[in-house]
Amino acid sequence: MQPCIMSRRPGPAMEPDEPARRDEDLPPDAGDPGKLRRGLTPPSGASHLDEITAHVERCFGPVRRVLHEVVSDRVHVDVLIAEVSEDHPYVTLVTSGMSDLPMPAQDGGPTHCEVMIRLMADHPLSQEAFADEANYWPIRRLKMIARMPHLLGSSFAAGHTIATNPPEPLHPGSEFCALGLVEPLDPDARTIRTKDGLEITLLQVVPMYREELAWKLQQPAIGALAELYDAESFRIADAGRARLRGEDWDHLVRDMSATMARGRRALLLVGIALGVVACADLVVTFVAAERPAWTRFGLGVWLATSVAQSSRLARWLAIAFCVAAVAMGAIVLWQRGLADPRRLTLLATLPVYGACAAVLAFHPGVRLWLRHKPKAAS
Fold first, then answer.
1. Model confidence over 163-189: pLDDT tens digits?
2. Which of 150, 237, 247, 322 could link 357 by a cystine bridge, Cβ 3.0 to 4.6 Å?
3. What HEC string does the chain produce?
């Protein structure tokens, strides 16, 4: 898939920066706000600013500031700024106005969209800082994307990329040269439902390095971007984030693969130890003619751990065994207590099962290595 072509536009245009207010969405000193708004918004459009604001606050944090547009082209695009909150360590910028007009429907894709981008908490967002394009470019690019479908008669969907041909920096001095569109990681954030029954698709804008763009254009699957940017820290518009493709990334993953190899060996040793204990318990169980309480899942964890990470299926099989071990062990302890010394051993192994499941399922290094490992590291 070839990237869409980005337009080139001159330096930053200042936006009135006002607190977010549900009852008045234009700056009070804009002359006749109602007339201005009606004149800039196409008659066929319908503003959903309140519903978009409520959705952003529900999914990303409080909206305390809005960048109000003074001069608009085709659609009136405001930018909502959701500040850092306890659950969201990044600043989130979301457009309001792109969805006022529908995009051409293509292959079942969305017809009404808004776009968002996430910034580091310390990204300058003051009026004074906007004089520097290095600070203003995320807002400029959001507005550009919001207008492109209506100006060009095109359509956007998750998996699309936007770049010049040949790719050029997003702003002077930047190493980002393209923009990718992906669904937000939070499924609840992906669709904005309005009171009049409209479903607005929210797409996340991810700045891309040249190596990442080159890799994406070689992939046949439309979902390649979602596989590449599978963590929020990879989607931030921050010049300091690591490249996820290219020579630097391959070196990083090779180093990581060595660490992961040591981790897998340690995990395998733990699995073997558990298996030995399980075998001993099996012998004791048969000799004592008692019902085996945890031998079955002990052996299962041993076998699953021995093949963990050789494939994605094996990894999830190991996770399933670990979770089953914890659940079954807890049931055994609750029903039979700790009178039998072997159940003390069971009690001691449950945290190990839980730790193995957590490492396999949630540790970002595991996901990184599995999804982005270069062929040389296989």
1. 988 899 999 989 999 999 999 999 999
2. 322
3. CCCECCCCCCCCCCCCEEECCCCCCCCCCCCCHHHHHHHHCCCCCCCCHHHHHHHHHHHHCCEEEEECCCCCECECCEEEEECCCCCCCCEEEEEECHHHCCCCCCCCCCCCEEEEEEECCCCCCCCCHHHCHHHHHHHHHHHHHHHHHHHHCCCCCCCCEEECCCCCCCCCCCCEEEEEEECCCCHHHCEEECCCCCEEEEEEEEEEEHHHHHHHHCCCCCCHHHHHCCCHHHCCCCCCCCCCCCHHHHHHHHHHHHHHHHHHHHHHHHHHHHHHHHHHHHHHHHHHCCCCCCHHHHHHHHHHHHCCCCCHHHHHHHHHHHHHHHHHHHHHHHHHCCCCHHHHHHHHHHHHHHHHHHHHHHCHHHHHHHHHCCHHHC
